[in-house]
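Researcher: I'm preparing a figure for a lab meeting and need a structural model of a single chain. I don't have an experimental structure, so a prediction will have to do for now. The sequence is pasted below. Please return the structure as tokens so I can convert it later.
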Amino acid sequence: MAQLSALTLPAAPAQLDLAMDEAPALPAGKQVGFELGWDHARHGLTPAVEHLFSASPLRQGWQAGHATFGRRTLKAGGHTQRWLQLRTHAWARGRSFETTLLTPNYLQQLDTGHCPISRQPLNDIPGDPCQRSLDRVRDDAGYAAGNLAMMSRQANAAKGDRDFAALQAAARSLQQGPIRQMGGLDAQAWQRLALLSSFVTPLPHEQAAALPLHVLPPNRLRLFNPIQALQALVTRQFATPGWSQRLARLEALLPQPDLQADFNRFVLAFVPRVLQQQQLQAPQDIRHALEDAWGHALVQRRWTRFALRLTAAQAEQLVQRAAAKRLCPVHVQQHEVPAATEGWGLA
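Model: Understood. Here is the structure written out token by token.
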């Protein structure tokens, strides 16, 4: 099965040269710390004080780098600082960090103005519930391309180390009551957390086909379930003018008339919700309206009927064909197994 990243992929991110002159041979963990200190010095930054004790390999790398570079340092923009902070966070907690793709340029592509879970505007105020936070969507994996999403500090803390099953159970519990909030988030936000986790969790096709798209996949997230990639591709059609013509061309790619009929029934159920959001101007408002449309029982029922008549392989092929014919409003990149999780640090 192929893994799909159904979101915008700009040109290949610039890679930072992490090579060090005369770097000492160290055990793996200490070597990573030394490299972190070296990169702090290369960008003219001082590591956090908790890593400046004398025996710290990070401090040793920083001192060696400072002696090498002096004032000949690289400019450290906000995303470079976040890159170093994230690497330091991962190293201090013994988490793997994939450095080939996960660069400052890549992290910049994950930026968003609103939390996809709470829908609140994000800020950079330390300790604020809406402070920007990069989270590993799949907690049993490391910090790697395709496994990260920007969300609020509050949403990140609420998610914790829960996997898809635990997040789904929490959302259902809140829906049933009597408790309606947990971790400062309501049942709808927990539904979005659960769905976000499902994207990077291999699920049976029948289970993935029955999930409402309560949150559109964040940029650069890898989608493990082809039917969800198709679901996201179809939903995004409605965000821009010309969706009717594009969906008609997409329908024509379906191999059987009865499949085309089921797809058309889904579109007819979704269209009234699209008409309701036509007066919206802000992209974020349109995004939320499209996500909310999946809360209507008729929309989900007709999608599930259509989706279950496809196999996972057929759904993946349909996404590929739609992308080849430029029917997808965002870029689609296919990742073959096992390359899709290369660098994720999975057991």
